[in-house]
């Protein structure tokens, strides 16, 4: 069936508009465009501000012992052989020990975190 064979649809009546009906004019655009630009820039700035605030409140520990109210580890100095390397980036799969995951984290984020290294003095 082609479009030319469709039956004519009855059109609803178009009411007469009163003379006070709103019509867009050039003056409306002269006001609306700057207002829209200011609103868009303002919205962008507010979203940037809120994102920065939420980053400051973000959690450092994203996956280690999350059901514990506080993650604490304790070691006796006598148990450290000659050297121990502890994670400070909270990304290690062997936490609390460093597994080198800080390197990937630093590359992805531009951060500069690294491990805590404890070693016995040379005798
Ligand atoms: S893996 Fe976290 S400091 Fe090395």
UniProtKB/TrEMBL annotation:
Protein family per UniProt: Belongs to the CISD protein family. CISD2 subfamily.
Location of this chain's protein in the cell: Endoplasmic reticulum membrane; Mitochondrion outer membrane
Biological role stated in the UniProt entry: Regulator of autophagy that contributes to antagonize becn1-mediated cellular autophagy at the endoplasmic reticulum. Participates in the interaction of bcl2 with becn1 and is required for bcl2-mediated depression of endoplasmic reticulum Ca(2+) stores during autophagy.
Domain Iron-binding zinc finger CDGSH type as annotated: residue spans: 70-108
Keyword Cell cycle found: no
Family annotation (SMART domains): ZnF_CDGSH (SM00704)
Major location (coarse): endoplasmic reticulum
Keywords, comma-separated and alphabetical: 2Fe-2S, Autophagy, Endoplasmic reticulum, Iron, Iron-sulfur, Membrane, Metal-binding, Mitochondrion, Mitochondrion outer membrane, Transmembrane, Transmembrane helix
Assembly and interaction partners: Homodimer.
Identification of the protein by name: Iron-binding zinc finger CDGSH type domain-containing protein
GO cellular component, one term: endoplasmic reticulum membrane
GO molecular function, one term: metal ion binding
Encoding gene, per UniProt annotation: zgc:110843
GO BP terms, alphabetized: autophagy; regulation of autophagy
Membrane topology note: Single-pass membrane protein
């Amino acid at each position: 069936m082609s479009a030319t064979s469709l039956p004519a649809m009855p059109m609803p009546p178009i009411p007469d508009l009163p003379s006070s009906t709103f019509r867009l004019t050039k003056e409306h655009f002269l006001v609306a465009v700057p207002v829209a630009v200011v609103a868009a820039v303002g919205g962008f700035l507010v979203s940037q501000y809120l994102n920065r605030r939420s980053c400051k409140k973000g959690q450092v520990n994203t996956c280690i012992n999350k059901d514990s109210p506080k993650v604490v580890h304790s070691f006796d100095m006598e148990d450290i052989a000659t050297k121990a390397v502890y994670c400070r980036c909270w990304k290690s799969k062997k936490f609390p020990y460093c597994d080198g995951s800080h390197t990937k984290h630093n590359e992805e984020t531009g951060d500069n975190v690294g491990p805590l290294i404890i070693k016995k003095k040379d005798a």
